[in-house]
């Protein structure tokens, strides 16, 4: 049995209500008048649950109640440790226990919370880096480079290019001279010459 102390913490109703001092390391929670912590509600069983300190940590165990006992919304089938930020429910009545955990389990629990916080912080930074929103100015800016070289190189079409140089002479097309048009007067002179030869006396 755990050693007796003057104060083991306080059971605080979630949403307001009178706090209940926990004066023993083992407590019976229920509706019966003889319970250590009496919850006079119709949906709370006579001996609804048990609170016990084990190695400096409060644990809760359901006592076979009709409407169940839960921790952080999960209904219990076996004893469960309760940390100060946990919500323990007897039927639908929610409480937290204000106390300072002690012992090896408390140390492990605090380390687990610290580790979870570190993991969450690393995840947050990683997500911010991926989104380009990392505000950590101590880190050098990352230069994003393409992983592969471009597969095509675009060139401007001939219609888009202004050619300033003249076309070389040897590329210029050489035009053939047009044939000279035959003159009708030359034909007339030739015919006259033939006539003169024909009529010329022998």
From TrEMBL:
Region annotation Disordered: where it falls in the sequence: 150-189
Coiled coil spans: none
InterPro entries to which the protein is assigned, alphabetical: Cell_Proc_Reg/RNA_Proc, FHA_dom, SMAD_FHA_dom_sf
Gene3D superfamilies: 2.60.200.20
Domain FHA: 27-76
Name of protein: FHA domain-containing protein
Species in which this protein is naturally found: Paludisphaera borealis
């Amino acid at each position: 049995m755990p050693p007796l102390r003057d104060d083991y913490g306080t059971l605080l109703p979630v949403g307001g209500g009178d706090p209940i001092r926990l004066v023993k390391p083992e407590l019976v929670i229920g509706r019966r008048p003889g319970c250590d912590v009496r919850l006079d509600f119709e949906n709370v069983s006579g001996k609804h649950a048990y609170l016990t300190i084990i190695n400096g940590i409060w644990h809760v165990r359901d006592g076979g109640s009709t409407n169940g006992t839960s921790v952080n919304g999960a209904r219990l089938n076996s004893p469960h440790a309760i940390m100060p930020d946990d919500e323990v429910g007897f039927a639908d009545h929610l409480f937290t226990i204000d106390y300072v955990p002690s012992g090896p389990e408390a140390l492990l629990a605090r380390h687990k919370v610290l580790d979870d916080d570190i993991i969450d912080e690393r995840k947050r930074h990683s997500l911010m880096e991926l989104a380009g929103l990392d505000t950590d100015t101590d880190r050098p800016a990352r230069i994003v480079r393409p992983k592969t070289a471009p597969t095509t190189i675009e060139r401007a079409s001939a219609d888009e290019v202004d050619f300033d140089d003249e076309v070389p002479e040897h590329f210029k097309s050489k035009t053939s001279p047009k044939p000279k048009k035959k003159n009708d007067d030359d034909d007339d002179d030739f015919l006259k010459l033939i006539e003169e030869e024909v009529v010329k006396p022998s």
